[in-house]
Amino acid sequence: MSKALLALAGLSLALAAPAWAKQPARAVASVRHARPAAAVPARNTAASDIEPSSDTVRIAEWIAGSGDNNALPYAIVDKPAATVFLFDAKGNAIAAAPVLVGIAVGDDATPGIGSKNLAEIGPAEKTTPAGRFLAKFGLAGKQKVLWVDYATSVGLHPIPATSPKSERRRERMLSPDPDEHRITFGCINVPAAFYKRVSPLFAKKGGYVYVLPDTRAIEDVFPRLVVQETATTRGDGGAEQSVALR
Of 189, 186, 145, 198, whose CA–CA distance to 168 is shortest? Predict the structure, then answer.
C-alpha cells in the first residue's frame, strides 16, 4: 500500500491505498479530498501527518464494502494510535485528528461504571471501551456531547475547560507518543475544530463510532469484519484467498 497521509493544520490531507480504490465511489479512497481541521495545531515532529494503521484500513474497507454504517455518518477511533477519522454517510472522508482516550489500557467498561461519580472511578476502570456504537447527541449536565455509549458515560467531545492543568491535556493532544494520549476517564477528547465537523453530521440521526481495541483481537470486537473479508476474498471453487491489507 502506498504511504497514506492525513495531515493536520494547513498541511495537505491525503489517504490513498490501492485496495481502497477498488471500492465504490463512496469508498475510503475519497478521503484524499478531505479538508484539514485548520484550527488544529500540527504536532511538533516530522510525523505531523496522521497515517492510518492497518487495522484502521481494514475497518474502513469493511464499512465501505458492506454498508455497515446504515447510511449514517461514522468515525473510526484508533485507540492504540490515538487518532480518529471522520466520514459522512456516503463514506467520504471529512477529517482526521489526534484524540485523548481512557488512561487505562483495556477494551471493556466496568459494569455499573455509568452510575458512579468520577471520584469513585478507580485507575483501572478508566477505559475507553472498544466496539461499534450508535452515537447520538445529548446532555452531560449542561454540556452537549456526542454520547458514544450513554450507559457507560463515554462521550466524544472537546477537552473540558474544567480539566486540571496538571493533566496537560492540550500538550498531550499534540504529542507524537500515543501513550501520552491516555489521560481521560474513558471519554474521547477531540480538537474543537474536529468536533465542529462532527456536529452537523451527527445532529439529526446520530451516527456510528467504531472504537478499535487495545488488547482484544479486532476480529472478536468486530465479527462482521471477518464475514465481509471472507466473502470478498473467496475465489472460484470457494477457496479462500489471502487479503492484501498492509
Answer: 189
Range of weakest confidence among 102-106, 178-182, 236-240, 242-246: 242-246
CB 197 within 8 A of CB 37: yes
Report, in angstroms and rounded to the nearest whole number, the Rg of the chain calculated over CA atoms: 18
- pTM of this structure: 0.75
Torsion angle of the four alpha carbons 181, 179, 102, 196, in this order, in degrees rounded to the nearest 10: 20
Measured between alpha carbons, how far is 10 from 43 in angstroms, rounded to an integer? 12
The DSSP bridge partners found for residue 143 are 140
How is residue 188 written as a grid cell?
Answer: 474521547
pLDDT on residue 18: 27
Q: In whole angstroms, what is the distance from residue 175 CA to residue 186 CA? A: 19
Of 21-30, 104-113, 193-202, 228-237, the one with minimum mean pLDDT is 21-30
pLDDT tens readout for residues 173-230: 999 999 999 999 899 999 999 999 999 999 999 999 999 999 999 999 999 887 777 7
What domains can you pick out in the chain, each with its CATH number?
18-238 (2.40.440.10)
